[in-house]
Fold:
Amino acid sequence: MDLILCHQTADFDAIGAAVGLSRLKIGSKIVLTGGAHPAVRDFLALHRDELPLVELRSVNPEQIRSIIVVDSQHRDRLGKASAWFDLPHITSIELYDHHPNGETDIPATQKYIEPIGATTTLIVEKLQQEKIQLTPIEATVMALGIHVDTGSLTFEQTTDRDAYSLAWLMTQGANVKIIAEYAEPGFTPQLQQLFSDALETIQTSEIRGYTVAWVLLTTDSFIPGLSNLAERLIELTESDALLFGHSYTKGQSDNNSAEKRLTVIGRSRIGGVDLNQLFTPYEGGGHPQAASVSFRGIDPQQMLTQLVEQLIELIPQPLSARDLMSSPVRTIRPETTIEQAQRILLRYGHSGLSVVDEKDQLVGIISRRDIDLALHHGFSHAPVKGYMTRNPKTITPETSLPEIEELMVTYDLGRLPVVKNEQLLGIVTRTDVLRQIHQDRLEKKERHHQKIPLISCLLPSFQERLYSPIWNLLQNAAKEAQQRGWHLYLVGGAVRDLLLAPGNQTLLLQDIDLVVDGFHRAADVGAGVELASKLREIYPQVRLSVHGEFQTAALIWHKDPELGSLMIDIATARTEFYPYPAANPQVEASSIRQDLYRRDFTINALAVRLTSPKEGELLDFFGGVEDLRSHQIKVLHANSFIEDPTRIYRAVRFAVRLGFKIEPLTEEYIRYAIESGVYEKLRLENHPAPALTTRLRAELNYILEASYWKPALQLLSHLGALRPLHSQLVLTGELWWEIRCVSRWLRYLDPDHHVSHWLIRLEILIASLKTEERIKIASNLQLPKDSIERLENLDSMEKTIKSALPNCQKVSEFVLLLRQYKIQILIIVGVRSDKSIRHIIWQYLTQWSKTQALLNGNDLKAMGYKPSPKFKEILDQLLIATLDQKIETKQEAVDFVKTIDN
Structure:
């Protein structure tokens, strides 16, 4: 006999899953281990004969072959049937449930547990795979299982899989009228009285902006159906969390005293409060938002009070202005002109500015709309004090998110200054609020699909995947920042690589960027240096380097036994402005949000907070996580490539290295920036544009030195992205062959990289242009002196070699000609020449140049010759004779020297 066990007080999800399994397991029987919910009981009263149900008492344990348990992972919820698990002849015990965080004490041989709304959904999917057709009553009871456990697809734990399964059951003939009757059953007279009692005795308390309710009802015996009563109660009282306690007596003991029992039903609408976590230590469980637990032999009131206290501890602190605001705030004086204010808005991309007096106290706010209106009426030179909003609404750092939202909606405000002790600390914008609300919704949605949430505690997973000495270093840095009242963030590539890396891979990060955000306390431009200096005290072996006018600090380890060749950059959060295209940006202290916005691509604009509160929070303001999932490179704003052409090369580098695609709109921005001609204009005007000189050289170095240089160069060509170097630079078929050929030569001739391979590839690329253009590009890129000289003299050297080589007859003549030139120039000339010249140069580099005279200086000394200029002459003649095979042995060489001397 194959049995399917439903837990005690079976609900529709347990019955629905069991009915579906009975179709999958032909001949199996369903056992109710102890009662059912009132609605289930009423349903079975009419339809029991249509389902393969057997009584518990009719089961012969000796005849049981296998057991399947649905919608439960605990033995104690299966009553007397739990003893069957210990029978020696039972070889198969399967477990189906939808509570993935629960621990089981059932000795299952197979488990099917997934985070979905109803266990029935798991069974429906298996029925679909097996293409099994259901009867209308089977489809109906299974549909009831999904409806009831997902609140008709409205509960937070509901997934799309539940919806698809429910739709399929409708195609199988599920009866909507029956579903409507049993999914929302009315209260019995007994439940109606209990509901009235609960409303009279319920207690509530406001905790951190949430309403927590609890109630304890006492009856003489167990009352089924109280979960529906709890649902109605939390809705009617508009509570955010409810603990519904039911105390009753069970049976009689030998001394004629009844055993006290308590069942607590929990419901929660508070994000971050996990009722399953609350009840699991007491062997209860369920969903994060709906769970239950049972006790026996305890004081009901004392236990409920204890659970309420523990529930309150789980309630998170609500987000406040301190968590949302941007700081420092861009301010202007009342005397600032409208025209000046407009330029400031344009420079920083703000939609409004705070106006402060000489004491830096807030006196007004002016929005972009106010400025546009003033400009429309021709008052560009008027002071902003005539157009600003005076006595604006303000908030404190402690103002909660709901209060901020209410103020914005009530007064139609786009921004709220954060003020404390009459000092302006920060500003919260409508965008900040909308972004937070959106992130909260996405976090809930993605938690069910087990994707990376936009805001979650990532530190535990990062700790597991990071090499422990590096993790400890980050913790030390966070501790020092915390003591100074700062926030510290891990930003950029390290976060990206951690999110992309396989879960079981330990990462030894060697390039880490940290950003200090002063938040509501001052963190001036020297904060990065101060933090780096403190870390140097902890790690005395590190080298500290301070560079740039913004006081960015770098900590550098070299072949450290624990940290390797680690480099950490530490800077204060900053924003930037490009005074003209391709310039170095001008930077100013700002907030972490502005700091992330100045970065190149969404996948690099991610940050993880290392300090409390909310340590481990992932900041993703621009959809970087979604772009990581989609494997695409997306730029943050349309003018990004106009401002900095090196971002074109970085886009290509990341796309090829990570195996991503450049997002179509981003590709359009790249092509538009190139077609605009702005780079060529700057080049022709000899404008000092760092993004077209030293920073561009660095990007070319990265690309041409990497193992993926071939697809990267092809992608640059496809985008037309060689034109920022020169408008006429095109990767023709011939040039592409030359670059690949030079790489093959370098790989064979210089396997240990004694010369810069990337530089030779670049020189081949530039050499396709006219001499004067080559020199100009090489000088702009600030290439090494010898590289510039090679490109400058390439034509003349190439002409000399190509004209002289055909006149050489002997090997020695080839060698004497070619040994005047360095290997770099010979490689470049070789791949740019026809086959015959190329063959000669290849023979020279691989064979003839390695031939040595049969005697050396020591041999000549042994023969009695004193070192003199004649040494070189003798050795040269020996080499020539050897190359031309006039002598082949050392004795012949000795005799040859004697003939020279005579």
Notes: Confidence is low (pLDDT under 50) at residues 446-456, 578-583. The longest strand covers residues 241-250.
